[in-house]
Amino acid sequence: METVVSELEGILLKDPHVFSYFMLIAFEASGLIRFVLLLLLWPVIRLLEVLGRENDGLKLIIFVATFGVRLSEIEAVARAVLPKFYLDDIDMEAWRVFSSCSRRVVVTKMPRIMVERFVKEHLKADDVIGIELSMNRFGLATGFMKDDFDVIGKSVATLCKDGQPSLGLGRPNSGSGPLFLPLCKEQCHPPFSNDKSTHNHHIIRPLPVIFHDGRIAKRPTPSGALLILLWIPIGILLAAIRIVVGLVLPMWAIPHIAPLFGGQVVVKGSPPPPVSASNSGVLFVCTHRTLMDPVVLSAVLRRRIPAVTYSISRFSEILSPIPTVRLTRIRDVDAHKIKRELEQGDLVVCPEGTTCREPFLLRFSALFAELTDRIVPWLLRKIASALGGRVTTVVDGWRQSPLLVSSPSCVEPP
Questions:
Q1: What pLDDT, in 10s, does the model give residues 213-263?
Q2: Is there a single domain that holds both residue 156 and residue 42?
Q3: What is the pTM (predicted TM-score) of this model?
Q4: Which of 150, 169, 188 is the last residue of a domain?
Q5: Which residues contact 29 (CB under 8 A, 6 or more apart)?
Q6: What is the CATH number of the domain that holds 133?
Q7: Is residue 193 part of a domain?
Q8: Using the 8-state DSSP alphabet, how is residue 399 labeled?
Q9: Where in this chain does the entry annotate a coiled-coil region (predicted)?
Q10: How many domains does the chain have?
Q11: DSSP H or E segment with residue 340
């Protein structure tokens, strides 16, 4: 059985720098203050790397990003946020070599808890070797490591005591590469050959990331994180203006003022008419790309369409320019609420129950399909750029005449 031991950062991941992943831990598991503090320390961290003290810089990153954070919060970010950014940075040439061996081991200088779920579920690794975070008796991270980085080489030797690894993928000048590469029969360094005859076994593809629950759309590199912070006051001001405009103006006026905010609304097709005495309302079924999906639909139809929600906050309900109906996740109660709303008019439902920016459909409840046959599927194809732009949406299935819309939806930080 061939065994491959591969470094994660700089090999399976193109970027050898792990700073951005700790920025995600700091922001998603703690908040903006820790995010800003870690960014302010980046020049110090970079200086330590230049002075050849990369390990000390990494220890400082780990301390600032994890000190006082609950283990459960770090696990949640590693499960629902980090995989998307890891997968976006995968080096497919390294992956082809890595996946060609029957037993796969990943080595990282990041805390094991941050990478284990991703490399085992998406990269099909058998084992993960990384550092362990020190925790106190309250389940909070102390910011320190249980052992130093030299434990990585010892762990690889212990793991492979039954036989020497066939192949080692690593950077000879990196911190973790020299810790395990001498233990392997053969060493392979980037750039990797595209020769498929080498290690020619069945090659599996990484498992795609379907669910991403992060609040940051782009990986926060130092420059990207700085742009996010600079964008926040502008975004708050722009959001406030748009909320006020959405609450004050009638829906029919929104497409006309969209160009003032850098957007454009283009409607092609025949939208469903309002509810009449002869029939019930139309149920619009959305793929839940953003929280703005029902708002954009209301602007397109030029009337405020109520939306059913599962877990929207009270504050969001107050700011919403359209009515909202809170569901309970109790099937009979929710069915009664939806039927009652449809008797009064049109309704929007997002059956996936949560937002999903990835090009996949999440598992969803089919309750809506049992309540009415007047259903119109509606799709938001892409998210607006940071300064507005075009968002293509499609409302299909009404009298064989699809409705195509381009509209500025939500504004996200760059």
A1: 788 888 999 999 999 999 999 988 988 888 888 788 888 888 788 778 766
A2: yes
A3: 0.78
A4: 188
A5: 69, 70, 73, 74, 76, 77
A6: 3.40.50.1000
A7: no
A8: T
A9: none
A10: 2
A11: helix 331-344
